[in-house]
Amino acid sequence: MLITIPDLLTPEELAYMRQILEGTSWVDGRTTAGDQAVKVKNNLQVPQDSPEARELGNIVLRALGRNATYSSAVLPAQILPPMFNRYDEGMTFGAHVDGSIRVVPGTGQRIRTDVSTTVFLTPPEDYDGGELIVHDTYGQHSVKLPAGHAVIYPATSLHSVTPVTRGSRWGSFFWAQSMVRDDWRRHMLYDLDMSIMRIRSMLPDDDPAVTGLTAHYHNMIRHWAET
Ligand code: NI
């Protein structure tokens, strides 16, 4: 399930983040890639342990915290610190699957990567190429969103970033471990939650249809969630 989150970041947050990223140093993105990905990865990243990465990462985490779509679609148990990358002209990331377990820097805590997120930080008109391609059972999806928008997709998916042929594409990317590890179950819970929101806009909150479906939603979470 691939879900777009419009306006995850406010224009002010976006402008501030771009300003900090303008002045930061970037390193070869291969430093955080696994054995297979390292051979197809060609981009730049802000060092994970830099103060800039931490400050900007916290802005992204705050934005996620106020976003109902992210919470409903991901049901996050843990979110890894957001990272930041850029693809300048000629840079690309070939087809790969993200590592299944990642260690939280500085803590040694292991997190299972269930859901991947990309936040677009550059307006699409500022670069050519640089599409995120996500492969799933329904085929290939090409994603290129306005700055401040995000896309989430199952971390089990094969994905790639097409070569940038003009300009520079900046983004934030990170993973979450979900309370519900199975993508199909998360999808069903998300669809149900969206339907409950629609029905709540049509019926009073104490209508038996609303209370019944809401109870069913919570009981499914109770049944499936690992916290
Ligand atoms: Ni990846």
From TrEMBL:
Q: Which cofactor does it need?
A: Fe(2+); L-ascorbate
- Any idea which positions bind 2-oxoglutarate? 169
Q: Which UniProt keywords apply?
A: Dioxygenase, Iron, Metal-binding, Oxidoreductase, Vitamin C
Positions that bind Fe cation: 96, 98, 159
A GO molecular function term, named singly, is:
iron ion binding
Cofactor-binding details, from the entry: Binds 1 Fe(2+) ion per subunit.
Q: Which intervals hold domain Fe2OG dioxygenase? A: 78-178
Per the UniProt entry, what are the Gene Ontology biological process annotations, in alphabetical order?
DNA damage response; intracellular iron ion homeostasis
Pfam families per the UniProt record, alphabetical: 2OG-FeII_Oxy_3, PKHD_C
Q: Which domain of life is it from?
A: Bacteria
Is Zinc-finger set as a keyword in this record?
no
Which NCBIfam families does this chain map to? PRK05467.1-3, PRK05467.1-4
Q: Which PANTHER family match?
A: PKHD-TYPE HYDROXYLASE YBIX (PTHR41536)
Q: What name does the UniProt record give this protein? A: PKHD-type hydroxylase
Q: Which species is listed as the source?
A: Paracoccus alkenifer
